[in-house]
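fyi for ur records
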Amino acid sequence: MTNESSCHSDAQSTGPCMPEALRDLPESRLVILDVRDQVRAGEEPFQRIMQTVMSLRDDQVLKLCNIFEPVPLYGVMMQRGFAHWTEQRGPQDWCITFYRASAEAEKSAAPSAASRPAEPVGDAIVVDARGLEPPQPMAKILENLPRIAAGGKILAMTDRRPMLLYPKLEERGFTFSTEETVNGWFETRIWK
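which gave:
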């Protein structure tokens, strides 16, 4: 865990107001994890994030510093009972605070997910990138993006959660969701 000065800065948030649960939060309850250098080096931070989450005490919150908004992580954390508050402080400077949600906080987080375009129905173009070494899975998925026609989608299968793919998809205006299967691989659905 790393304390970064930019994570403590008083820079203006571009997002919604800070939730009541995070106001006047003592430093002793704040755990900061900065994965920006790891992501820039092309490494997957998911395992490190989850290890940190598992080490949190019940009264602690996690502030994650990343170079992009980790939208799929929101769903993973919500399943573990965490709501989030996101601040974008610059083009590649995101701070996301995960905290244990009350029912009211979970309700307030729902509209952002609801505003995403709905996943198209029907068959998907399957891109099986399992067994490939990074960055080949990401390259294979990106190569197939032009194949998505209006109302279509891609189902990409990978051995790891494709964290480095997410900012590429966001840049191109795609919507996506990732689920871990019971067989141990990950399925990412991508659409516009």
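The CA atoms of residues 159 and 183 lie 10 Å apart. thats all i got for now
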